[in-house]
Amino acid sequence: MSNYFTFRFQETNEHRQSLVVFGNPDFEVSSLTKVIKDDVNENLLPRRVYLMGYDLTSAVKDVLISDSFFADEIDSWIGTFADKVAFLKVTSTGLIKELDSNEEFCFSSQLLTTGAESIFENRKGLITSLPSYHFLKPSGDHCDKFIRASNLFASGIEVAFLAIGLLPYLKSNIKRIYVDTSSISFLVSIAVQLSKSFGEKFPVIESFESYSVFNKPYSFLEDDDSLVVISATTSGGLAQKLTQKHTFKPSNIITLFYSRIKAQQEAIFDISEAVGKITSVKPSDCKLCEDGSKLIKIEGEQFIPEIPKHELLVINKTDFNEDRKNFFKAFATKKLLKFNTAPSDNWDREHFFVDVKALLESGLDAFRKPLIKKVNKHFSKDISKVICLDDDAAKSLADEIVKITKAPSEYVVCYNDVTEDDLKGHSSVMVVASAITSGRKLLATARKLRGIDPSATITYLVGFSKLPTIEAFEQLRKDLCLGGHELIPLKTCYLPRLSEKALTPWDIEREKLSIFGDIEDPLSGERDKLPLLLKKRLIELNDFSSQDELFLKSPTGENLSLRGTFAFWGGLGLNTSASSQADVYWTIQSIVHDLRVENDKGLSTTYHSTLLSPVCFDRFNDGVIQACLLRSAKPTELNYAVDEGFSRQITDIIISVVKNSDNPQGEGCLEFLLAIWSGRLKVQEEHLKEILASKDEVAPEDVKFILRQISKDIEIP
Length: 717
Fold this sequence. Notes:
The protein is of the alpha/beta class.
């Protein structure tokens, strides 16, 4: 559980977002430092950091300023402490004030709305339908989305933040607070405790169960001492009906989250941007019903859908879009797209690596021609320094740029060999990166360059951008290009960004196999040792010297490779026999990533999960493609145990693969079994027993070994 709630928000007329850290007023230095570092790692450099808390005091500020470790960390990561860190205190009446001036913070409303949107999105407050179904709201209207506020109250510190918006309405005369769902009682009670309006006698909080109040006797006390708090609305309908059926004043009915309200209604957090367009109509006007979409009723005061839904996603050839085709046509099958490779000796390995140095040596037109064009266009006359990031490929790219421009070779300098003082008052500069995954190193370079001549420009030239989304790239562009600078990517390939803390399928595989290694447990009755293939595999995992050793071999000992044609490369003129496993993995990962990014806008919600359809493993039955799918998918996308039918489908495929483990039809067998053993792929228990029962029908020792370990791990005889 975190002691802090962090989010980014954009002040008016500012291009770069600021970081808000909301927490208890007694900030603890080490945890605060960590949370700021983690955010900067994930979201790049903020314009400013706001430290925010209830009744924050100057003493807290003084403690943080006097802590040399904290101040040094801020200086190295963000900038000068005095310029970059500000303190905001929240009063018991809900005002947000600047600690130094005691004046109300001019962006208070903007900050609260952005924070609420962040909680709403992160906690999945929006339940979204699919074309196959839509929702029946408690009001009787049909909709394609609805807001479920109960999802938003999982964190105490986030609830304390949301309570700020409610505080101005908690006047000392309030004796009763009616809520439309008991799920928001926690938020209301926290707000009551933070308010100093009530002394020791707190108002009574009672749920009237939303629209059901109009279908049964319920006695409201409808005076000025009563307050009604509605969790969320997309239309303002419940608040309107309460004023029509009862004598509540509109000012005594407050809605927490809203996308649209009626005139004169009171509401706190506008989440219309996060929600987007919502279809909410009377049953007689429902186009979704006309199209055959199934109606799912939202039940109870907790607003729970009738039955959780799970969808299957089938990958089609059309999911490989034109941009992807052009990229892989240019760079696949040329030993350029690699896996788990370090740019230089002292650098960390990159999950997705482009060998730009080899690419430059090959003189490939698909890269060289756009490089020449961009350099001719953007290498200005007053550039006298080309700063390359400290990897061999960036140095090679920088050297190529000065050759193209016929500039002196001494223009090229490595990032670590130049200081901020060296660059003060300098003329225009070109910064060169062979590839970027997050852009952090470019931002670090930007800090070194902040003292260049005001009339000078910085051109950031990047060989390959591998940021996860276009939105992430545009944010980086905004951060780097303030003041008229430019960010020029030669090639773009959006790819998932893997967390440094998360274990990859290869990490889990290594953990599983390392338990056995060469050491026998003297207390073990069976004394399992790794069979030959798995023993060799453990050596491969600790080396990764070949781009054809990403996956387990077939049970008969062959490397997995494309057998013939590859549907996604059809028409691209690529020689599949020259492809590496890394080429295929890049291709499948890019497709899955595109589908995931698209589907996150509507397909992945708390109401249902999307799984990779078993049909994918049947349709793409080359072992190498199956291995790519198994390792590209998230565990939730392979959790077939959620549905008996899904589990049956994938079980039949796995059993067929296991039974054919001695021929090409079962070449992906070890990959399927590893996915089960590592817990990434799940089936229902009775189906798992069927898979395990096949161990007596197969010959390969490595297949038997993993089946035996699965059986032991889950205690199935």
